[in-house]
Amino acid sequence: MDSSTVAARAVKDSAAKREKKAAALGSVVAAVFLTGMKIVVGLLTGSLGILAEAAHSGLDLIAAAMTFIAVSVSSRPADSNHPYGHGKIENLSAMLETALLLVTCVWIVYEAVRRLFFREVAVEASAWAFAVMGVSILVDLSRSRMLKRAAQKHHSQALEADALHFSTDVWSSTVVIVGLVLVGLARSLHAPWLAKADAVAALGVSAIVVFISIAMGKKTIADLLDGVPATLREEVNRAAHVPGVLEVRQARIRRSGPELFIDLVLVVNRHEAFEHTHDISNAARDAVRRALNKPEADIVIHVAPSRDDDDDWVAQIRSLAARRGLAAHDILIYDEDGRPELDLHLEIKDAANVGAAHARATDFEEAVRREIPGLGHVVSHLEPVRNKAAADGAAGGEEERIRRIIAKLAPRMGLQCNPHDIELKTVAGEVVVSFHCTVDAATDLADAHRFTERFELALRRRAPRLGRVLIHIEPPEAGNPGV
Prior knowledge:
Strand 1 (about 245-255) and strand 2 form a beta hairpin. The protein has twelve helices and nine strands. The chain has three domains: about 5-225, Up-down Bundle (Alpha-lytic protease prodomain-like); about 230-305, Alpha-Beta Plaits, CATH 3.30.70; about 310-480, Alpha-Beta Plaits (2-Layer Sandwich). It is of the alpha/beta class. The strands form three sheets. It has a three-stranded mixed beta sheet with strand order 1-2-3. A three-stranded mixed beta sheet has the order 4-5-6. Strands 7-8-9 form a three-stranded mixed beta sheet.
């Protein structure tokens, strides 16, 4: 990034830090006000529901203070001991808040059960009780909405947890008001059993808090253990599949507070130029940030070349040939009816004639079949050791016409040749022709090679758009040649 971009990022981070701290501090002030108000009214009215709400608000005060500390620490930059920054402090804060909530719920349930079955406590459903709960609902609504907006804007899990606390207070306060209404009705309707509604309301508060706490605790633990939703991983994989990416081999995602870190391994064509692979990785990084709507996400991409089974087989074939004193070139592997087949040129030295050369080629072909299970036809073009450039050509020609040309040319090439097993295939846009020629076993290998060159040249003159031409020379006793 250039200096102007870095400066702009620093200004943005500083503004976000101030906004998060202001939101957290506002929650502390609101929690202090609500806790104090509920304690006073709860003691004056004797309402366990209001005292439970005071305890809940007191816990919110502790949680708000923890959130304020967490957002202050989490915004510190990464250092040598914390390479991913300090964002996890927000997750730790949320986990401690959850533990405090559950402990408080245990006390509330215990006291509610005592009042329901073992102890009588007079509860006054006064106007003050209703007023404090009404004010509590208004404050809680205001704070939860403000905190939720700040949490979404800055991707802060600590503020999100604090917003959750205040939103649960809205529901629990509503439950307490219902309990107080029923207490008032108990007196006017002379139904003493309705006086127990306050304790029931306290149990309702506890149930709400426990449910929310467990959900928040699960999310917090998942974040601390670097768990991410499967949908997020799928979204990253889809976005990273930009043109040029063959496969997303690995996608590791972790959160650290508001920060998101993504490590990707992208597979591209092994023949791509370095500059192009750099462009592909940049395009994938931008696509992921757009898809997640997180332009600040820290994304590290490793580009891996694709593996090609054909390349592995070519290396195996050349190694097998070299171990037998042969040289294989112009190796072509293609798919025919769902199984691989092989055409190649095989240079043979120290072979006095076609018979000896063919025997060595047959031994080599059998070794290739053992190394590559499931291989179909293997057609090798025999030639003496020499440098020979690969034939150039373009796809074209009709199959029947080429067969007739081969049949007409065979008697004119200087050797008695019986062309058979003629095959024509379209491979990589080229028409490839291969066929076997039976010649006398005593024929000199150099003469046989010159014969195939003349044959190929004559064939190309009549079919100039032809691609590869492979002519397999064999003696009459070869039996089932080339298979």
